[in-house]
Amino acid sequence: MQEKKNGGNVQFIAPPVGKNGQSGIQDASISTKYVIIPKQAKNKLGAAQYLNFLYKPETDILINYGIKGEDYTEVNGAYTQTKEQSDKISWRSMYGLGDTDFGINARLKAKSLLPYYEPHLAFKKSREETNFAPSIEAYGSKFAELRNYVEETSMKFIMGKRDLSEFDKFTQEFDAKGGKAAMDAVNEWYSKK
Is the dihedral of CA 55, 60, 64, 67 positive or negative? Predict the structure, then answer.
């Protein structure tokens, strides 16, 4: 950002506080992805062993910091590396198969973003119930489309490309795209749980 806009800076903004004084950040869902070893795989055991290897603490260090003495130094459990050392770890993308708090912190530290991430940890995490819901057809079949529509329209409101006086029209459009049916289905599930 500083390279593209001279004089710009990044700051942490605490989450807004509601009328009841509560504030927080949405908790992550219990599962955001899964790995499947296909029945047709020629080496199912090898694939399982590889996944088990990825979840070992020493592999987490290797994936996120590289080779000790070459890509980083370690003193009393603290890992240090230069941005250049961090950037050259091409296998770092392996974290996508099973990310950890350790790995998230390592990548944020490498990009000098940790000071903007750590402050949010102090805020209570609000459980987003839809992350834990069973499959709800009216919601699940429309979720991606509705989320994209809401995000795109929200950005238009924020950037001034759509006037806030059209907010009621936006909610009508959301309902017409299946939003009302989706919300009704989720509310029905939630009221019975």
Answer: negative
Distance (Å, whole) CA 62 – CA 71: 9
Contact yes or no for 110/83 (Cβ under 8 A): yes
Query: In the chain, what's the furthest Cα-to-Cα distance?
Result: 60
Is residue 163 scored above 80 in pLDDT?
Answer: yes
What's the whole-model pTM score?
0.56
Strands 78-80, 25-26: pairing kind: unpaired
Contacts of 12 (CB under 8 A, 6+ apart): 115, 116, 119, 120
pLDDT in tens, 120-134: 888 888 777 877 788
Contact present, 130 and 28 (Cβ < 8 Å) = no
Cα–Cα distance list, 42 to 35, 45, 53 (Å): 16, 9, 19
